[in-house]
Amino acid sequence: QKGGYPHFMLKEIHEQPEVFRKTIRPRLNNGLPDFSQESIPDDIFRECTHIQVIACGTAMYAGMVGRAIMEKELRIPVTVSIASEFRYDTPLMDQHTLVIVVSQSGETIDTLAALRLAKECGCKVLSIVNVKGSSIARESDYVLYTHAGPEIAVASTKAYMVQLAVLYLITARMALVRKKDSEEAVRAFITSLEKAPDMIEQIMALDETIRKQAEKLAFAHDAFYIGRGMDYAFSLEGALKLKEISYIHAEAYAAGELKHGTIALIEPGVPVIALATQDKIFAKTISNIREVKARDAYVILITKEGADVSDDVYDIHLEIPIEDDRFTVFPCAVILQLLAYYTAYAKGYDMDKPRNLAKSVTVE
Ligand code: F6R
After folding, report:
1. With CB atoms counted within 10 Å of each terminal CB, which end of the chain scores lower, N or C?
2. Which string of DSSP letters, residue by residue, matches 98-129?
3. DSSP states of 334-350 as a string?
């Protein structure tokens, strides 16, 4: 059942290139995104003035990456809300809001309640769901299924990956429909997206290096994940993965926020997983990393290959083989998943069934 892997989580991490391709390919037509099989009308993409993403946990963190890419490519405001907060808020949405609900199980009760609220407000709801025929899929106006297959490990990995893939596809379709980009530019975007599975496969080659770092991380009481912009969104997911399966206290911070309080927690040896994959704010992030390094933090730095960084700012430097900043989430996600997995492994925990957690949260 585990296909020769010691745990479902590792098996599911390794399935990511395949499920990514399965999710993307049926939705491409002559190199362009096409949702006609799902009967999703372009009007919902053309006519909205605001996008509201609603989800919980890892699915919400996928939504945060989605927001970054959508706002950048489409120049349309995108809000990401935690479903359990959103459902008790006074919603600011109407028929011009496109609501995107993201859920692996399709049964998360708060997400379902938020979906119902959105429909009461007259919004069209497009959901990104993994489980066919689930409640969220049934109650949405439109569904784009992720083809991750069953995700058994409680900690989500491959479902996150394909939620991202679909959010990127929606971005590309919207860019086309709203004439934000030429067909040629959208085709180039899709070509880069299609490279993600190969990139993920290349990251698997870092397995041994990541495992060695995890063996060190296993002794930590706290860990910090830092990054700016998109890197911050990846950091949030990385920290969640580590805490839920290795029980190490982990927090993600927007790197520029450190000096507003959190840097007080940095003491010699504290692990800081620093992500600096975005050219625009690279120098700023590196200067934040210098600040934690000056306090003797143990820095695991992740950058694009060939990034100009001197060796006094990190203890270990992991490079991802990619040039286009917009797609760095795919390799980064795998590094952060493996880091969490091997840390839990080193601690001897059953990461497929972490304490206090259920795969699907169907009660409030
Ligand atoms: C973390 C994790 C959870 C889920 C969250 C939402 O690894 O799996 O944070 O992402 O409970 O679940 P779904 O996507 O089923 O709505």
Report:
1. N
2. EEEEEESSS--HHHHHHHHHHHHTT-EEEEEE
3. HHHHHHHHHHHHHTT--
Q: What b/e string do you get for 255-292 counting C-beta neighbours within 10 Å, with b at 16 or more?
A: bbebeeeebeebeeebbbbbbbbbeebbeebbebbeeb
**Which ligand 1 atom is the nearest neighbour of the CA of 131?**
15
Q: Taking residues 35-43, what's their average pLDDT?
A: 97
Nearest residue CA, atom 7 of ligand 1? 155
Question: Looking at the DSSP assignment, which residues form a beta bridge with residue 81?
Answer: 54
List of residues 6+ apart from 208 with CB closer than 8 A:
none
ipTM over 0.95: yes
- The DSSP output letter for 312 is T
- Residue 359 falls in the annotated catalytic set: yes
Amino acid at 235: S
> Given ligand 1 and candidates 361, 362, 363, 364, which is best to mutate, with the most ligand atoms within 8 Å of its CB?
361
Q: Which residues contact 270 (CB under 8 A, 6 or more apart)?
A: 220, 222, 223, 224, 297, 298
Dihedral sign of CA atoms 301, 305, 311, 316 in order: positive
Give backbone dihedrals phi and psi of 65, rounded to 5 degrees, phi first.
Answer: -70, -40
Q: How far apart are CA 286 and CA 294, in angstroms?
A: 12
- 3-state SS assignment for residue 89: coil
| pLDDT tens by residue, 78-88 | 999 999 999 99
Give the number of other CB atoms < 10 A from CB of residue 50. Answer: 16
- Supply the pLDDT for residue 28: 98
Pocket of ligand 1 (CB under 6 A): 56-59, 103-105, 108, 111, 155-156, 240, 244, 360-361
Using alpha carbons, list the distances in angstroms from residue 13 to 236, 241, 352: 18, 12, 12
**Whole-prediction pTM:** 0.97
pLDDT value, residue 355: 87
List the structure tokens of 113: 């309640």
